[in-house]
Amino acid sequence: MVNASKRVGGGHIRRCLDLADEITKNYPNQIKIEFITWDLDVQFELLIERYKIQRIEENQLLSFLDIVFSTEKHVFLVDVNSEHVQTVDFQVFLRNHGVKSIYFLANYDWSYNCDILINTSLLANEKTIKSASNTLCLLGPDYFIFRKSFRHLNNIKQQVKNKVFISFGNADPHDYTLIFIHYFLEVKTDLEIVIIVGSANSNLNEIRELGNKLPKNVDLVFDEDDLLPFMENSKFAMVSVGSVFYELGLLGIPTILFPSSEMENLVAKHLVKLGFAKMGIEYGETFKVETIEAYLIEPIELERKDLKALLNPLGIEKIVQEFRLEESIC
Question: Which of 28, 34, 142, 291 falls 20 to 30 Å from 236 in CA-CA distance?
């Protein structure tokens, strides 16, 4: 169960799709996979169209699952931030139906009574996780789900260029992309700028129009899933706190973070404290390009610890092994 829209972004559905593909690869013709959602924009529906999609209303979820769980044996994976679905009562409902439940942790303050709990953040190893004694916790970046192009890099060596990679997620709820585009329309830089624009960005039409006016050294890349070619050889990056941060870490590229939620802000502050990143702006602060334009006008070296040693490019394989789905196959 997962949502993907301009409101919640596309990171959740991307990792669920990667998991679905990995499970299909490991259990060919043995497991049927369906996506349940109540908030799914059309561009994300196209992304997962090779799997069956069940659209429901959130308030109809329990009655829908009562019917579904009465017919077959199920494993139920939850990657939504809905408090209703994240409650212990709902998790007990799943257990009472004999359903193996797998949750992505959505809030460190919530309690979990599921079979498997996943949180791939570096912060997960530092927090006290509120989980039942029989919950298997898969915590930390050793379980991170990298995109396919990052799973077999073979010790790639960066040839650092005068390039900056910028990406604020698929939805960019705080309009950072648009702010930077307006900045580059007014201020010249000798840097090569690559800005990734997600398909769920609410300013998409305006960004496309402004893109025609940008200088040649500022390149807009629209709705691209394989970001490796655009990240490679960057001097540094400015990104939101998500999968892109860890992918940049795998490449050894210094990063400035722009969290877009309270949860992301908590993670970002921890990463900065550990020396793995710099903070561009904290969540809730008024964004001013002037606060970080020193990086753009006179690029400086960003001193930070190397993250690569803590990352497992094949974390998805480790997760699927821990699922032990062969026990759930009828």
Answer: 142
